[in-house]
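re: ur question from earlier - yeah i can do the single chain one, its not a big deal. heres the input i used so u can compare w yours
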Amino acid sequence: MKAVEAVLLVAVVIAAGMAMPAAAREVKCKVEVDRSVLPAGTRSSAVLKITLEAPDAPPESERTPVNLCIVLDRSGSMGGSKIEYAREAAIEAIRRLQPGDVVSLVTYDSQIETVIPAQHPRNIEWMEEQVRKITPRGMTALFGGVSQGAAELRKHQDGNYVHRMILLSDGIANVGPSQPADLARLGASLQKENIQVSTVGVGMDYNEDLMARLADQAGGNVYFVEHSKDLPRILTAELGEAQQVVARKVVIELTLPEGILPVRIIGRDGRISDNRIEVPMHHLQGGQSRYALVEVKVPSQPADASIELGRARAVYEDIATQKQVSTGEERVAVTFSEQTAAVESSVNRAVKIEYMVNVMALTQEDAIRLNDEGRPGEAAARLRDAAQEYLRVGDQFDDEEMRRRAQEIDAQADVISERGMDNRSRKSFRAESYQIMRQQSTR
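and the output i got, formated as tokens:
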């Protein structure tokens, strides 16, 4: 198509209010490196950032319908404002659904009950009445609640839906399988069925390790809700995200040329096999940008040499057409110099900052482990070292947010050094690190 014809086509599409051609809704892939110039005559490290940019979500009339299941803890500890706000949140989510969507609601305590079997939201008044009848009682059969929620979602698995479960709990799982590994295995199996699970931990008594492992393996989000009044906002945001999914089964593929050695995937799970790296991203919502960071070793090269570091692409399922698609392959290369100034001036600010943010998240995870092992002093020292490096990079780029965050982490390290990591800090660290490494919007 000639350039003039293409411009005329766009003008006609806009004037007629028509959807743009399918090509305009493809996921885009780009790859960058933290420094475009590396020091000559020595072996170096480089960080590759592979970014996926999703197209805008289609209008409401064209979006893929949602198959939503809310799995609600109704154990005895959910009394008072917790259950009140949980009911309000569920009702608000149901009201925001469209006729083509599907909704179900499962509660769990010592027993599992399907309060609203999977159905289209056409009898809203009846659904609201069922939700308002939910009262706290019994213990916490979390595993069984998730399993029953999955059974409700499977009733519409043959249709083209975005399958989303939202699990809400304020307590420790104490009926049925209750270890993080148990829920991780369940989450992984659900992800294979295109069922994504987001977890909402309420208050100070839930098991954040269990909730995070489940969401991680099931490709969902993690929330720490200190105040139950935030529940309606979070459930509404989760539904909004599900309504905007444009791609699923998303995997970044990175191929390294001979001589470039993979070191690690930073902040995400993935697979390294020889010179090939795969990083699952699970799903993309309209207008979303998500990335993966990969560290590699680069062999020594003479000054003025230029070599390719890698080729990246993404494969995914277009949710509207249900067809497998791949992006174009993007390449990234570096040159080499003996001039320190040339190397330093080539730093990619955005990639460097994202790298530091993810390293800090990993440090928070390490601090949790050290504290759990009875070594709070080492946890605090690890956080202080990370905060100093964070501050150095913040000063380098004159980034006020990085400076603020460095001071905050340093202050938290002081508290941990004095009296260990308290329950609230542990939950906050776990949720923050997860949200950062998965680029989850905290809304």
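The two ends are 42 Å apart (CA to CA). not sure if urs matches, ping me
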